[in-house]
Amino acid sequence: MTKAKVAVLISGRGSNMAALLYAAKAQDCPYEIVLVAANDPAAPGLTLAAAEGIATFGHSHVGMKRAEFDAIIDAELRKAGAQYVALAGYMRLLSPGFVAQWDNRMLNIHPSLLPKYKGLDTHQKALDAGDTHAGCSVHIVTAALDDGPVLGQTPVAILPGDTADTLAARILIAEHQLYSRTLADFVMRERSPQWLLAQVRAHALALPQADETISHGMPCFGITKGKKFAYFSHDHHGDGVIAVIVKTTAPEEQAMLIERDPDLYYRPAYFGNDWVGIRLAGGDTDWDLIAQRLAQSWREVAPRKLTSLIDAADEF
Ligand code: GAR
User: Fold this and answer.
1) Residues of the chain with pLDDT under 70
2) Is pTM beyond 0.90 here?
3) pLDDT confidence of residue 180
4) Distance, CA 89 to ligand 1 centroid (Å)?
5) 193-314: CATH architecture
6) Which residue among 16, 46, 114, 136 has the greatest number of ligand 1 atoms within 8 angstroms of its CB, and so is best to mutate?
7) Predicted pLDDT of residue 1
8) For residue 259, with 0-12 CB atoms within 10 Å meaning exposed, 13-18 middle and 19 or more buried, which class applies?
């Protein structure tokens, strides 16, 4: 399996970035770090990343509009081929456009048991509240600060005599353990057959009068009481492939697609020439393309009455 490409954004020390980077050196780690970028060219973490042979990018945000700066970072992330972004002590509010670009692709680590203590001074806040435990959380980044679905947390006991500094140092140990494991699970989840089937199902069942059955042992999507337009194939006939199989618009299209992108498309066994398989487990599936292919496939098998209704609706 190819490794997921992760870019890490930092602002300073970069110890979480280092934890991700060293975890990524393990052969079975499902991600690799392709870029470490900072909003401060003097961030110490950049020196460490460069010494470890990782591409780095440092650019000061000072005097720039938020969206303008985020566009520069976004361009670097794309140039590096990043599929995911890990914020690791990146002390910048992000513009909504940047967050939208990396929707469901960007994680953050925060030194509190979210939803408690968003923002700064989290350790002091936990001490002041008399909590028995503080901790850290990894979450998916959404437009609101330190918000978004929590993927993992580690509670850390508060000891008698703890100060914000001693507590922060102990939580940091937990952060380093938590981030890498949670990031690895996150990139793996998106390659799992269950997750991929759920995505295909959501797109397929959004089409008019679509339903799901099982055919030849495969989850299969069709028009209710009508023809099938998509199959979800997981290691069918022991081929090891996870794919969606859809109808082509013409028999020649199968050969054309496979010739154009043989890593993505393949000829599914026993389906004939008017179907094509699209591999899904590469970790960089273009879900807009899948949605479009499913809709085209649906159109190939839908009765005229149904397609003309849709066409009429589309004209409005
Ligand atoms: C970490 O404790 C991280 O959780 C925190 O900044 C520190 C960065 O340290 N992040 C936040 O507070 C984000 N809201 P590092 O540069 O050594 O990883």
Assistant:
1) 1
2) no
3) 98
4) 4
5) Alpha-Beta Complex (3.90)
6) 16
7) 67
8) exposed
